[in-house]
Write a structure and sequence with these properties.
single chain, mainly beta, two-stranded antiparallel ribbon, 0% helix, 47% strand, elongated, ABC-type phosphate/phosphonate transport system, ATPase component, P-loop_NTPase
């Protein structure tokens, strides 16, 4: 593994970054401190019961 920022390719740098995201629906915790980087030119789908 390379440290964050070690890759000098500008297309590999994240264009979307979520840090420490938590989500609750009422008393139900759906996410707990999620960190997610999405680089340029990548497609990501999040699928769940309501998606």
């Amino acid at each position: 593994m390379r440290p964050l920022g070690a890759n000098k390719d500008p297309l590999a740098a994240p264009i979307v970054r979520l840090e420490q995201v938590s989500q609750h629906y009422g008393n139900t915790q759906a996410l707990q401190q999620i960190t997610l980087d999405i680089p340029a030119r990548k497609m990501v789908g999040l699928i769940g019961l309501t998606a």
